[in-house]
Amino acid sequence: MATRVLSSSPKLLNNLRSFIKPLNSASAAAASPLNFDEKPELSTVEKQHPIATTLHQPTTNLDLDDHQKLFASVPTLKLLRSSVNLGLASNETFVDFGMWVMNSRLMETPLLRDIILKTVKHTFFEHFCAGETTTEAGECVRKIQEAGLRGMLVYAVEHTSDNAGCDRNLEGFLQSVEFAKSLPPSSVSFVIAKITAICPISLLKRMSDLLRWQYKDSSLNLPWKLNTLPIFTDSSPLYHTLQRPQPLTPQEESDLELAHQRLLKLCQKCAQYNVPLTIDAEDTSIQPAIDYFTYSSAIMYNKDDNPIVYGTMQAYLKDSRERLFNTARTAEKLGIPMGFKLVRGAYMSSEAKLASSLGFDSPVHNTIQDTHACFNDCASFMIEKIADGYGGLVLATHNLESGKLAASKARNLGIEKGNQKLEFAQLYGMSEALSFGLRNAGFQVSKYLPYGPVDMVMPYLLRRAEENRGLLSTSSLDRTLMGKELKRRLKSLQFAKPEMAASAAGSMKIEIGTP
Questions:
Q1: Which residues contact 118 (CB under 8 A, 6 or more apart)?
Q2: Signal peptide: which range, if any (predicted)?
């Protein structure tokens, strides 16, 4: 099969041979011809309503009411601190004030900045993050493992605009993979990376424009484009690119070569240590380029029913169900085990604003009910694939109903406890009841663990504060159940014998220093 690479950049061809070599192997040649541009048709039933992909009423025993059982592994002081922090995070006035402070000129005054960062560190940072260093993050991983959970390590760097910054971020990601391998077996489920941290944003936008235009006009030749899986469907938003884009400049080609090299190194490290890598999603202006990077690397590294590279699907987008179906079915047909992290999405306001400014409808579902239905359909589709022995799925949800439905579907299809291809996930510090309930029901459950210096993690914390507005139902349940459990523990302490009360009080003091 011919491979398309940068004809004007011979070094890129040499550096990316390890990406391409598996496709030209004898085993690949023996199979049917690979057509990476094929767009599989959905069946009539799938188009109208996904069947077979419908989640039914839950029947599995997912108990989210027994607060004593749910929080049995959580120390009292941590439970109290979590309850307070969630209460603050759900107070819109407090959140608005905090976001104003963090984005204000107060942060330009060294003394005030230091005070603010220290305050954040001992409140929201400790609640939502695993620590500032790998040592602190490792201790956090060990503690959640003792509680029956696993960690998804997130070196919390985000957007970068220059190659020097991208190189620094790559070193952080590589260290994260090595760090994951050094921790207790199975304590880390995934390492998370952002393409925006290893490829300049401006280049991702240019690539996305060119990929969109090529989908509109197949005659457009992209000499740098490697084999990939379907990135678009006919319902995908293409309004970002209203005119034919110019080809990449020599400098952009050079930057693309460097970005490919960075991703190559990261994937090789993950494959070497057998640590799965999940690529986070972004907004639709740059998501096509991110999907391109993700799928082209997955083609090279996902082998032998072992997905190393996972992509992310955002169910709040109207085209996400069809894209997931197309991509998964194409990958399965080509013998490429593809893994996906399924989320709802976090850019609703900015997506709607951009679409409106260009005179188009928002790419986001019109109602939250439509988003829930799409998420559940996508989850059911992939759970059925896993039951048939194909692919991998991370269900990242804070929605109680989605968690119950997916758990029921998995049980009904006979997916056994501890199946490594199905992972539930929630943000560290959020939806604790759902995490522990799924754990108690026998599922693999991970917590998303960002770590890094407080000032570097600040963009992540600001997003958590903003997104928490849409998660009030789950945080409210957590606060209610935490409150009940704290009252139960206080009551049991009051009625304990004096020596037992003194012992319990002593243990509470010891726990004050734990994250």
A1: none
A2: none
Q: Which of 394, 385, 383 is nearest to 423 (CA)?
A: 394
Q: What mean pLDDT do residues 74-78 have?
A: 86
| Beta carbons of 311 and 340 less than 8 angstroms apart | yes
**DSSP letter (8 states) at residue 394:** E
Rounded distance, CA 382 to CA 189, Å?
18
pLDDT score of 394 more than 70? yes
The string over 67-82, giving b where at least 16 C-beta atoms fall within 10 Å of a residue's C-beta and e elsewhere, is: beebbeebbbbbbbbb
Residue-wise pLDDT for 431-457, tens only, equals: 899 999 999 999 999 999 999 998 888
The crossing angle, in degrees rounded to 10, of helices 368-387 and 320-333 is 10
| Residue pair 338/298 in contact by the 8 Å Cβ criterion | yes
What average pLDDT does the chain have? 84
DSSP assignment of 408-442 equals: HHHHHTTPPTT-TTEEEEEETTS-HHHHHHHHHTT
**Residues recorded for the chain:** 515
Q: Is the pLDDT of residue 126 over 90?
A: no
Largest CA distance in the chain: 82
Residue the block writes with tokens 């999940």: 278
Q: Is the dihedral of CA 150, 156, 159, 161 positive or negative?
A: negative
pLDDT, residue 15, reads 46
User: Is residue 126 packed enough to be buried (19+ CB in 10 Å), middle (13-18) or exposed (0-12)?
Assistant: buried
Tokens of 107: 């942060």
Supply φ then ψ for residue 89, to 5 degrees: -65, -25
d(CA 235, CA 308): 29
Identify the pLDDT of residue 193: 97
Residue type, 473: S
More confident residue, 56 or 219: 219
